Amino acid sequence: AAFQENVGRQGTFPHGIDILTAADYFAVGNRVNCYLTISVYIAGFPEYTQPMIDHLVNMKINHWDSVIRELSTKALHNLTPRAPEYMAHVVLPRLLPLSVGTDLHTRHGAILACAEITHALCKLAEENNRSLTYYFNEKSLEGLKQIHQELCSRQLYRGLGGELMRPAVCTLIEKLSLSKMPFRGDPIIGGWQWLINDSLRSLPLVSSAARQHIKESAVSALAALCNEYYINENGEADPALQDELVTQYVSELQNTEEMIRCGFSRALGALPRCLLKGRLQQVLEGLKKVTLISPADVSFAESRRDALIAIAKVCQTVGVKGEGSQEEYVCKDNVTQIYATLLTGVTDYTTDSRGDVGGWVREAAMTSLMEVTLLLVQNEAKLINANICRQIMCWLAQQSAEKIDKFRAHAGSVFLALLHFDRPPVPHIPHREELERIFPRSEKETLNWNAASEAFPRITQLLGLPTYQYYVLLGLSVSVGGLTETTLRYSAQSLFDYMKKIQDDSSAMESFCETLLKVFEDNLRNDRVSVPLLTMLDQMLANGCFDIFTMQENHPFSVKLFTLCKEEIKRSKDIRKLRSSIGVFCGLIQFQGDTREKVLFQLFLLLCHPFPVIRKTTASQVYEMLITYSDVAEPAVVEEVMTILSDTNW
């Protein structure tokens, strides 16, 4: 506002109108845009270049807000091409002492600024075919090396200051490696490697967000360091160094601390091809062990997630060669093992005090399955067999029908990405033509999987495709019988709409009921599925979904369903499960034959249940059942039973 006022009244500010056009009130309101884009435009006018750089160095890299410090250093990177000599000969020598100074914020900002300016200067030197000595003298190179040594000797990586120093120096290592600094064979490389390894381990007194930031910085630094300093002119790594690094990283995967497993899983995923060559099976086996659930590490969902992400990264790094060695490539000998590990991740439903932590694992598994599949399709599609492709698409279909919006949306987007990929198409996708009709290519980007109202009407259409029916029904059971109102409403409505469509098709109904019973049987006493499944069955019976079978004497569906329900609640003390089963038993009364007597007897047992709430619920629902199905017994008997039910204090 002050700048605008001066331009309007005095007219003496250089390039005032041009600057105000770019840096208007709304444009500067966005902090990132202001620092990274507008600053570069304004610094393009010579009168403003040096003052803007000086302001960032003097006033902003030591700001109390770490976000401002980080933005300032990125702005200095962008401004370096405007004044490279000034940056190299004035700004960098001024920053080097600050980067080992006593003030924490100034030290943090100065280290990041050194990293960004050095990287920008090296890019300029490369673009203009100049040697690094054009911008860097011996003193500045030595100063950059001294930063880590000084911080290490003063133990500034420890304590709360380590939250800032570790990611800052890891960023410095990454930028110096990308800048191809002439440090090959220098002892400083060993010091940097120590810091990276130490940062990959769990750090005490550090928040989880800070720990994640430190690990990400360390992994980025490791990738750049290995690519620049561990590979010779022939593109090969030193065998002794490779053996030491890979063996150490794989052994850390079985550490008893989850965060250490996470760090070294990510690190293995970042290693360059030359360090994985000849060691691929060792790395894949190590990562596979991290993905397995054992009683000791059942809650280690984050390490399982990171291991699955790392497997896909490793596969992308080593590449594909069908007839190649399993120690060097993704090939016919190891592709089945890779897929088996990734598919195991899709079945992780671990829960703890944080909620559905298995969802993180499932999400990572789905992403990795997509990445590995697309990698194979574009290189050697024949390595994808029909069975693997069927499993992938079926599991994705199940996840696309489940109750948590975020994971459903991710599964749906991966499902459509594989279905519509055409460079070349993914082979062996079951029912491809029908799927492309249900999910047209034109709606790939617009279909909102997060919205239950859009997702469920589409996904329930897969119930008509035999390959997908079991898996979609398994996913729907959890949604229709769930507790979230919108998910419940739209999933149930979509299911009932599908059932109406097949009511007159006896073979389709028989097939559906057979699959439904199979889902129940396979998940008997698995409360994550069986409890909502009972709720879904209650709703389906109440909505007349099985009317076609009710008039048949002793229809197998009613007999089997009664047996499974009875088995499910045997010796159970789960109130929600018991209440859901009452609704199913009451719904089964509409079927003719011996089942009716068995159902009545089961309901009488529930009227005598030790839990008052179960007795009361049973009485209430049996009363409603007798009003609906009055042909259960003689009218006089029904009337007497209803009187007892209503008059008794259950």
Class by alpha and beta content: mainly alpha
Q: How many angstroms does the end-to-end distance come to?
A: 75 Å
How many E strands?
0
Largest sheet: none
Residues in helices, as a percent range: 55-70%
| Count of separate DSSP helical elements | 32
- Ranges where pLDDT stays below 50 over 5 or more residues in a row are none
β-sheet strand percentage: under 5%
Q: What is the radius of gyration?
A: 33 Å
Mean pLDDT score: 94
Dominant shape: elongated
Structure description:
The structure is a single chain. With 650 residues, the chain is mainly alpha-helical. Helix content is 68%, strand content 0%. The protein has helices at 2-9, 16-22, 31-43, 46-60, 66-79, 84-98, 104-127, 138-153, 162-178, 188-200, 208-229, 239-252, 258-270, 273-276, 280-291, 301-318, 335-345, 358-379, 386-400, 405-420, 432-438, 452-459, 466-480, 485-501, 506-522, 527-542, 547-550, 556-569, 575-588, 594-607, 612-628, 635-647. Helix 12 runs antiparallel to helix 13, helix 15 (280-291) runs antiparallel to helix 16 and helix 16 packs parallel to helix 18 (358-379). The termini are far apart. The mean pLDDT is 94.
